[in-house]
Input
Amino acid sequence: MKLVNPLTAIFHPPPTPGVLAVFGHLDATVDAIGKLRQGGHTDFTVYSPIPRHEIEDALDQPVSPVRMFTLIGGISGCAVGAWLTLYMSYDWPIVVGGKPVGSIPPYVVIMFEMTILFGALATILGIAFNALFAARRQGTIAYDARFTNDKFGVFVPCEAARAGPVETLLRGAGAEEVRRA
Amino acid sequence: MAETATAAARGTRVTYDFVTRAIARTLGHPGKGYFALLAAAVALLAVGIVCLLFLLRYGLGLAGYSHPVYWAVYITCFVFWVGIAHSGTLISAILFLFRSGWRTAVYRTAEAMTVFAVMTAGLFPLIHIGRQWYFYWLIPYPNERGLWPNFKSPLIWDEFAIGTYFTVSTVFLIMGLIPDIAAVRDVATGWRKKLYAITSLGWRGTNEQWRHYTRGYLYLAALATPLVLSVHSVVSWDFAMAIVPGWHATIFAPYFVAGAIYSGVAMVITLLVPIRKLFHLEQLITVHHFENLAKLCLLTGMIVGYAYCVEYFTAWFGGNPAERAAFWYRAFGPFWWASWTMIICNAFLPQLLWFKPIRTNILALFVISIFVNIGMWFERYVIIVVSLAGEPFERFANATYNPTWADWGIMAGSFGWFFMWFLLFVKNFPAVSISEVKEVLPAPTRGKAARA
Output
């Protein structure tokens, strides 16, 4: 009996069936996005070699949640900086001339640097978490190597039986190539 | 866009495909010139390592320290390399926030330079502390005696600032590289394809990836901008917080930041000229880019020149005899040659950049940039060594300071170390940003070309 590796389901999920269209022009891609949205499709993926505002506007997506990662990272960095300096000063107090042991002005420098450090690292985590690991259908949808070079792409997930109208729609919008995956 | 205009004049069309191929080609066989440079860098590094081994074995007495000059060439090199790093972040983060299109072709080189310059700078405090194996005493960790670092000392601020700067500029560089590594992954073959498949972290350029990526990149740039200003301010406070005449000045933070960006822009020019030639990137990195770098050089050079004037003016107008004596010693004392090298290279020479024929002459820019690098090294030497040597509190101890072979050897080694990493980077990863250069090109459309 052949044993099934349980990790296969996580790291090599089965491919999503659907239609992949390759576009050579930005305006054709934007047209296709508009038509797909009019046709009630919401779950499609657009590939592009560079970020373009035209595509973002056509997709009308919500603002990325990465900003919350940055904000929370920055605030916690500032708090860690304040805790580090004040706790360590009071843990072994060195009183100089009767002045307060915790002195805020020099500690602002540490708090500032920690704000930047934690904010930046949290931003990286936010991008990695949202764009690489938690992205919908990551690695299961069809891809073409030209999408990082000079072609735009649209992948519409659908069953084989319902792929016909989607293919027609994408060809009508000006796709150079349409294939089933 | 100027890039496309220049390319059109030459009869070539700069398309997305052209950009990918031209930049992916830099990862192929680089030719003899590249290996000659790499060999020179490794040889310099070897000299530095040998000198460092002697220093570890026999102690800091090998360096030319003599009372009262105990901060000398190693600290000079530290400040010099941190300064070199700064323009990389200026070009990659500050100009990104200002949306200046010309930065796209040069920012990757500048950003890589930042990371390697901070890596080089970070070595010098460790070399300088003498008992190098106790460097970890700077880190706030719970030890058996319950002691913590003194957070009121600018030296510990510096450790936090440099540590943060190194971490943030490294992740910023890597983040910018991901879409470009994916682009070269898709045209590469063999072992390189495997390397890039792993290092591109599964990037495919989907709308969802770009949505989070562009947002995150914006925030990274927004965090890096105040960081770069703070780091060299903190470095300047290493000096300004002390009461040494010539150091204790409120002008130090902006003066150091301007100087840092100035030296860094000069180093970007020094690096770009051979890179452009070796990897045939003339169509992507044009004279227009060099002219803009020259303008940045002129601007920051003027600020530095102004700071020199203000320093001397304050010393005279403030009327403090110790401060006046320090600046008299600086200009006319035994180290006059260092001070005048600094003033001529940094304040007078860049005035040539007012003239467009010089700004657009790449050879002239290369020569000027090398002189600026020399001048900026001497600026730090003058501030650190000459101020200490002329200390008025040390009437009976004014020994003449002379750097030794251990100082020069380790300094040469630092250049070898920096250039070795830089050359290895440009050979193995895209030295020009593929996706960002495409962003300033007109997008391919069915009708008339849409402008970016």
Q: What stands out?
A: The helical segments of chain A are 6-11, 26-38, 53-59, 66-91, 104-133, 163-173. The two ends of chain A are 31 Å apart (CA to CA). Chain A has a mean pLDDT of 86.
